[in-house]
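ok here's the first one, seq then struct tokens
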Amino acid sequence: MEKALSVSQRPRQRRLRNYLLDRRFQLKYSGYLVGIALLFSLCLGFMLWRTSEAVISQSRRAVAQGELVVARGREVVAESQKVNLVVQMSIVKDPVYSENPALLEAFKADSERQDQRLLSQQRTLEEQAAALKRQSAEIEEQQRTMLRTLVIALTLLVILIGLAGIVVTHRVAGPIYKMKRQIREVAAGKLPLPSRLRKGDELVDFFEAFESMVASLRGRKEREIGQLEHALAALETKASSNDLEPLRRLREEMRAELEA
């Protein structure tokens, strides 16, 4: 079981290493992209937060104003009821109204209608204030949800840009990695044919120029081998086999450089 896990983990680690051919170069420029994306995300998040805070502040002021109107409405209703009570007591004591019960009942009915109208207006104001309070709470909840979503989305954006930077720089680092390896081989005297670039790799023109240089060096080496073979053929009848042995070893070494 452990062997199976280790075998399944190796290809994944190998693929990750293949994408980071030049860690310093790729992580450096991926870091630049991540930094720019992070700065953009912070600026965007700050502007959205300021805008939502302004909306919430305005909503809170509306709620506070509605509650103040409701409180004043209660005071008006209470004062109106007191006034009606005082007037009613005065009417009861007045001999004119005491001798005319119908007029007293008419005043009471009018006072009740006025009280009912004030109470209805008071209930309407209270309902509007409650609606404003609910709306303010919903706006605050929406702001929290929006900020959480924004943080998650921008975090994913930064991560994706970082991964995209690694992939893009991998297309540059791949050709550079191949050319560095080939240059070391040329410096060691070996001239193998360069492996082809993968589809999507960058620096194609530069790599083709490098490939042309290697092909030119191989052509010159092959001409030198041909001249050496002609020289060996001409010396076969004039020199002993032992005397020609160093030239044969040189020829084989030159061929090995082409086949490496």
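and now the second one, same deal
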Amino acid sequence: MKIEVKNDDKVIINDFEFYGHIDQNQGCSDCKFNLVYYEDFDAYFCPQCNNWTESKCSDPDCTYCPNRPEKPLPHK
């Protein structure tokens, strides 16, 4: 897996580009890989496991969770 950071606010994982950052202080509870913040969905995920670290919220007015895909990375 190739991970790059561009201009401090874009993350590129295997040619998939999005706004966010790599959190150097938080690791996945399963594999210990650094978590990545995905700005469009206001959530962290593990790029190695391709799983979100938190569930969708139950707020009916939330602008993030209803549009969040099941997996963060589309190609994995």
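notes on #2: Strands lie at 3-6, 10-13, 16-27, 34-38, 43-46, 51-52. Residues 3-67 form one domain.
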